[in-house]
């Protein structure tokens, strides 16, 4: 079989790879390869599905706002219900909430917080703040929208196709992905928890990316908040919960370093969380319907890494999205499209100053 030829090979079929594939398809010939038999199998099917414009370091806040705008545009043009309004309430001590709330969250009185989140026990928090610009997102629908839009624009998507070998001759990559040989001018590393490993395979130095475990569960509860209620998170990162169509989504908000892999909950993690939530809420959790763990992968700065590797002209990073992969997805795909094609941001409807600032903030930096 002769090699598949393309301008850009994207490695990884999660939200990062798929959103770039759909953004880039009108400009370049693109192939996307995914190790697993299904797209979005790893972290992208394991998130809390919330887009929070006040959450994250400054470049992330900006990319989140841009993503919300771009998703609004997609919703208007396609009618797809990609997002629903869902506020975010932060609770904790005065200093804890002050430290986390940033300038974009509005402080709530204790009574206001209890009114909005009546499942909280009054003694469980001293201070609260709210972000009302947040939305919940249907991540399955979003992934499928990008898959379809990319395919419609000619992107070839191969699943069950792990990249196992890569060679660069100074102008062209020769890649082995599953049983296929592929040639490409540029390789995009959107391999999530495996991104540093994929770089190594390509002879590129790592970015110091660390996969961090985070567990979540859907539970049934006697006093479940109705759909449309806010997501509630502890400022000390000890829990969050939000209403879900199947019950309540809960998480212990842990960030434990792990190896890349098919992460699973540790025995006892969900039980300890239920005990903790029993102390701070009246949720009255009765049954665990399902639980899972995903890997939020980030570099030390907590800022995603997007751009051509400084030591390799054919290697482009699209990794380190940490806990912000969905909320930054369209903004990052737009930025990556500008950097990969050299397009004028204004031609994409983007603000050149904003794109320039994001490119500088997210650029790959060699780790010593
Ligand atoms: C519990 C939890 C809650 C979260 N909540 C939110 C939230 O509310 N909002 C938000 O914005 N984000 C959230 N996140 C973070 C978000 O899910 C991630 O940032 C995002 O999914 C990362 O997407 P990705 O495409 O980079 O990685 P992935 O989805 O992991 O995709 C990478 C893909 O690359 C593939 N791959 C790896 N190596 C190879 C190879 N050699 N060849 C081919 N393919 C390869 C993998 O199989 C994988 O499918 C949460 C994460 C967790 C775990």
From TrEMBL:
Gene Ontology MF, one: oxidoreductase activity
Pfam families referenced in this protein's UniProt entry, alphabetically: DAO (PF01266)
Gene3D superfamilies assigned to the protein according to its UniProt record, in alphabetical order: D-Amino Acid Oxidase, subunit A, domain 2, FAD/NAD(P)-binding domain
Domain (FAD dependent oxidoreductase) ranges: 7-337
Name by which UniProt lists this protein: FAD-dependent oxidoreductase
Protein's organism: Arthrobacter pityocampae
Record InterPro entries: FAD-dep_OxRdtase, FAD/NAD-bd_sf
One GO location term (cellular component): cytoplasm
Keyword field: Oxidoreductase
Superkingdom classification of source: Bacteria
């Amino acid at each position: 079989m002769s090699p598949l030829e393309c301008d850009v090979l994207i490695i990884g079929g999660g939200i990062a790879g798929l959103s770039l594939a759909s953004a880039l398809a009108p400009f370049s010939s693109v192939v996307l390869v995914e190790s697993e038999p299904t797209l979005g199998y790893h972290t992208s099917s394991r998130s809390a599905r919330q887009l929070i414009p006040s959450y994250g370091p400054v470049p992330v806040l900006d990319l989140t706002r841009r993503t919300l705008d771009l998703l609004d545009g997609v919703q208007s043009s396609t009618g797809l219900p990609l997002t629903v309004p869902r506020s975010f309430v932060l609770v904790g001590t005065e200093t804890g909430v002050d430290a986390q709330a940033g300038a974009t969250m509005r402080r709530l009185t204790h009574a206001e917080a209890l009114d909005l989140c009546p499942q909280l026990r009054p003694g469980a928090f001293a201070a609260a703040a709210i972000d009302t610009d947040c939305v919940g997102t249907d991540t399955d629908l979003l992934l499928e929208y990008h898959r379809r839009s990319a395919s419609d624009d000619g992107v070839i998507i191969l699943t069950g196709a792990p990249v196992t070998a890569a060679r660069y001759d100074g102008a062209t990559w020769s890649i082995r992905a599953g049983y296929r040989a592929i040639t490409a001018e540029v390789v995009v590393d959107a391999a999530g928890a495996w991104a540093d490993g994929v770089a190594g395979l390509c002879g590129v130095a790592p970015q110091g990316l660390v996969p961090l475990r985070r567990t979540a569960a859907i539970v049934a509860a006697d006093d479940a908040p109705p759909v449309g209620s806010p997501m509630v998170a502890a400022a000390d990162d000890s829990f969050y919960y939000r209403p879900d169509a199947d019950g309540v989504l809960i998480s212990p908000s842990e960030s434990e370093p792990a190896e890349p892999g098919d992460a699973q909950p540790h025995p006892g993690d969900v039980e300890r969380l239920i005990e903790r939530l029993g102390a701070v809420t009246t949720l009255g959790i009765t049954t665990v319907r399902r639980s899972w763990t995903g890997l939020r992968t980030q570099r030390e700065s907590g800022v995603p890494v997007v751009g051509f590797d400084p030591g390799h002209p054919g290697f482009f990073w699209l990794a380190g999205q940490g806990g912000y992969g969905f909320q930054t997805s369209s903004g990052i795909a737009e930025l990556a499209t500008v950097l990969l094609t050299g397009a004028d941001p204004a031609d994409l409807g983007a603000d050149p100053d904003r794109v320039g600032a994001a490119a500088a903030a997210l650029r790959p930096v060699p780790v010593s």
